[in-house]
Amino acid sequence: MPPVKRQRKTLATLLRPLSRARPGTRRPTSAAENPALEAIWHAVCTIPRGRVSTYGAVARAAGLPGRARQAGFALRVAGASLNLPWHRVVGAGGRIVFPRASHAHREQARRLRAEGVRVVDGRVARAALIDLGELDRPPSGRCTRG
């Protein structure tokens, strides 16, 4: 049996991010270059003040059915300059998905109440939930404060 020839790799090669390990693949370098994230951001912009929608409904409105988690990811990576009304997106059944004791949970509940949405025990009132398919207006390019 011939001896196994081992290739020596430098420390820099071993620590290189996996996205650069395969030169044949191309991934978007920023979130702004990802059309799926852009579509989700546009869908979130269409949620009117005083109403809320679920991550799943946002994903469906963006043309990405079954990708509720991607809607959550899109909101997490969105820059503050987009002025997205992130607080208008809740989990299935109208539940605020952040841990109850977290700052994000308190902030989302505070913002929703300021818009007139009833929040009880971390859930919004069913009457405030909308399916984004019900909206007739096209998504705007950038959200405005409101």
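(the above was protein one; protein two follows)
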Amino acid sequence: MIQKSINAFTLLELLVVIGIISVIATIGIPAFNNYQIKAKISAAKSNHVNLVTFTKAQAIRCTNSLDIELNGTTGRANLFKCGSPKASIANFRLAINHHVYGSFKNPFPPSNGSRCRPNVDNCQPPGYLNGCSISGRDRYGMMGIIVSSPYEITICTNIGPTNLPSSATGEVLIDKIRFIYSD
């Protein structure tokens, strides 16, 4: 009678493999989460820089009474007539808010379902943030655009946690855009 040898893993070998996989998972999952948070922080910083640069460029165009084309809340282009009697710094801020609502996405998932865009407290109709009080974990990625003087707009963004794995408030970037444009 010929005996067949059965090739299989022993219980000990399987337990060793499971132990190795669990050690790798224990180390890998928190590191992966930190990479995701860092990517979101980078996206929020990029949103802030892009908005500041865009707003400065549009402010210069308005200072020279040139019309500017901005995305509306639906993402379609709207013309803002800088030389018209209705043009004011408050209306310019509103047009920039419409542009952010129609063009930007919050890299952090909102804990409050009503915050569908980075610059609103409610979605329909858009309730734009009225200040830079955007600190707090539930405000990560949020952007505020305010008129800080008759000649200045302030843009602030909560870019997320200042230390990992998380922070309660988040770091807020603030930029002021000064231009000659009065109501």
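Reviewer note on protein two: The chain has one domain: 18-178.
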